[in-house]
Automatic annotation (TrEMBL):
<dbReference type="GO" id="GO:0006355">
    <property type="term" value="P:regulation of DNA-templated transcription"/>
</dbReference>
<dbReference type="InterPro" id="IPR016032">
    <property type="entry name" value="Sig_transdc_resp-reg_C-effctor"/>
</dbReference>
<keyword id="KW-0238">DNA-binding</keyword>
<feature type="domain" description="HTH luxR-type">
    <location>
        <begin position="129"/>
        <end position="194"/>
    </location>
</feature>
<dbReference type="Pfam" id="PF00196">
    <property type="entry name" value="GerE"/>
</dbReference>
<dbReference type="InterPro" id="IPR011006">
    <property type="entry name" value="CheY-like_superfamily"/>
</dbReference>
<protein>
    <submittedName>
        <fullName>Helix-turn-helix domain-containing protein</fullName>
    </submittedName>
</protein>
<dbReference type="GO" id="GO:0003677">
    <property type="term" value="F:DNA binding"/>
</dbReference>
<dbReference type="InterPro" id="IPR039420">
    <property type="entry name" value="WalR-like"/>
</dbReference>
<dbReference type="InterPro" id="IPR000792">
    <property type="entry name" value="Tscrpt_reg_LuxR_C"/>
</dbReference>
Length: 196
């Protein structure tokens, strides 16, 4: 394989530029640097070898293996956010690097996924286990996400086509499952884990 072509996807401009510079200093060619995931897929074979993306960006947009146009996807993940890790995996990432990791590990991961392999940073193993153990159902996450935006029970019920009593039951279940004291505490715990 010749020089690896990479597209960096990172919302924060300064960090995106620093990441691009770090990759280029390691012998990787940065072909593009984007603040958000591209809306259109590159034609097969025309995209970069690897997308190196902030997992927070992957968690907030619709990404799929097909959108990547055959390119590998490497996610930069915060170690203490199992929900973000879970969503990056669901987005089709085949490589996962701890944001607090070293340049050497990042370059190793880029080369690995560019060659068709999978890469998981050792420090993220516990995060994968915790991500697999996420206690909330999709419906509970939907209710909690709307509650996190400050929506009252009646509006959550209307948005999800549920009765207010059912919404209250879901919130009670969420509070119990995450070990929270109340709705606000449940939102704090879920955000801390990266579930919402």
């Amino acid at each position: 394989m010749g020089m690896i072509g990479v597209t960096v996807v990172y919302e924060a401009r300064l960090l995106r530029a620093a990441l691009a510079e770090l990759l280029e200093s390691g012998g990787v060619r940065v072909v593009a640097s984007l603040p958000h995931w591209p809306r259109e897929a590159a034609p097969a074979g025309a995209g970069p070898d690897v997308y190196v993306a902030d997992a927070e960006c992957l968690a907030s947009c619709a990404v799929s293996r097909t959108v990547a146009g055959g390119s590998a996807l490497l996610a930069l993940v915060p170690a203490q956010r199992p929900g973000v890790l879970r969503r990056a995996h669901a987005a089709g990432a085949t490589g996962f690097v701890d944001k607090n990791g070293s340049k050497r590990r990042l370059l190793e991961a880029v080369r690995c996924v560019a060659g068709g392999g999978q890469f998981i940073d050792d420090t993220l193993a516990l995060g994968f286990l915790q991500a697999a153990e996420m206690p909330l159902t999709r419906r509970e996450l939907s209710v909690l996400s709307l509650a996190a935006e400050g929506e009252p029970v009646a509006q959550i019920a209307a948005a999800l086509h549920l009765s207010p009593g059912t919404v209250r039951n879901y919130m009670a279940s969420v509070i119990r499952k995450v070990g929270a004291r109340n709705r606000i505490d449940a939102v704090r715990i879920a955000r801390g884990a990266g579930w919402t």
